[in-house]
Design goal:
Blueprint lengths: L1 E7 L4 H13 L3 E6 L2 E5 L3 H13 L3 E3 L2 H18 L6 H9 L3 H12 L3 H19 L4 H7 L5 H12 L3 H7 L12
Antiparallel strand pairs: 1-3, 1-4, 2-3
Helix pairs in contact: 3-5, 3-6, 7-8
Length: 185
């Protein structure tokens, strides 16, 4: 019998590797493993409890509530959208994936996380901007274009508003204060 577990904070490929290693260490049979979810074969409720404790120690959480699962799936979808530099409309993108109206998704997300979907996306984008500045492979205009800003001025204004410093100040710091993706909310 297959059991699907939804795992909070499993938002990047290093997280996926850590979860896979923990599941294998405990001797459980993995059917499939994706960001935010693990499908395991022949696992008992005792095994799930054991795995939950193990994953909690690594900063992950096995989700039980349907709304928590949906919110985590929304986060993963937004992370993938920002990471792939997908320029499609966010509300249409999420509505299409989850087959629910954007206002419903937005309200659910806000109630669970205490911030709006749009604010979450902006926070992710600011971390992506920091990463791109740190890599030094693009100038500010190229960064703005790659993240679908109308112009670099709009990005610069938003960056200053969100971080309290200009992109140039951040670039010159060399002591970059970046957040892990799972620490954004």
């Amino acid at each position: 019998m297959k059991t699907t577990l939804y795992i909070k904070n499993m938002v990047c490929y290093r997280c996926k590797t850590a979860v896979q290693k923990e599941i294998e260490t405990l001797g459980f049979d993995i059917d499939s493993l994706e960001l935010g979810q693990a499908v395991l074969n022949n696992i008992t409720s005792f095994d799930i409890a054991k795995l939950t404790i193990s994953l909690n120690k690594l900063g992950f959480e096995v989700l039980k509530e349907e709304t928590d699962v949906l919110v985590e799936e929304i986060k993963i979808a937004i992370i993938n959208k920002v990471d792939k530099q997908d320029h499609s409309n966010l509300s249409a993108f999420l509505s299409a994936i989850f087959n629910k109206s954007y206002p419903v998704l937005s309200k659910l997300f806000s109630l669970n996380e205490g911030i709006t979907i749009e604010k979450y996306r902006i926070n992710l984008q600011m971390e992506k901007v920091k990463e791109m500045i740190q890599l030094g492979e693009m100038n500010f205009s190229e960064i703005a274009y790659s993240l679908d800003y109308n112009n670099s001025g709009h990005l610069a204004k938003q960056f200053k508003h969100e971080t309290g410093m200009s992109m140039t100040e951040f670039k010159n710091l060399r002591k970059w204060n970046r957040k892990s993706i799972d620490d954004i909310v």
